[in-house]
């Protein structure tokens, strides 16, 4: 998980807000694809790819924040002796 710790938080946030929400109008792609997933309509390979493309930055940001806050609480990573 060292590579995840090396990603700057601002970069993960910028990816989530730009690629994760693009296109911004009329609604973000990731929202549309999540609605399709819940409705059971996410069947075309292009739609699945879109969900992965626009969802990955959000997963990266969540993992980065989880590592950051987990380490502050003493749970994320090894302790050095």
How would you summarize this macromolecular structure in one to three sentences?
This protein is mainly α and 81 residues long. It has helices spanning 2-6, 9-18, 29-39, 45-72. The two termini are 20 Å apart.
What does this protein look like?
The chain has four helices and no strands. The chain is mainly α and 81 residues long. The chain has one domain. The longest helix has 28 residues, at 45-72. The mean pLDDT is 86.
List keywords for this structure.
single chain, 81 residues, mainly alpha, elongated
Helix content: 55-70%
Strand content: under 5%
Largest sheet: none
What is the averaged pLDDT score? 86
**Distance N terminus to C terminus?**
20 Å
Instruction: Describe the global form.
Output: elongated
Give the low-pLDDT segments.
none
Q: What is the topological layout?
A:
Elements: H1 2-6, H2 9-18, H3 29-39, H4 45-72
């Amino acid at each position: 998980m060292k590579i995840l710790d090396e990603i700057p938080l601002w970069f993960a946030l910028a990816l989530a807000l730009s690629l994760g929400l693009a296109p911004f109008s009329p609604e973000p792609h990731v929202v549309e694809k999540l609605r399709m997933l819940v409705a059971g309509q996410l069947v075309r390979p292009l739609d699945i790819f879109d969900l992965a493309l626009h969802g990955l930055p959000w997963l990266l940001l969540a993992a980065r924040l989880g590592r950051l806050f987990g380490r502050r609480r003493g749970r994320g990573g090894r302790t050095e002796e």
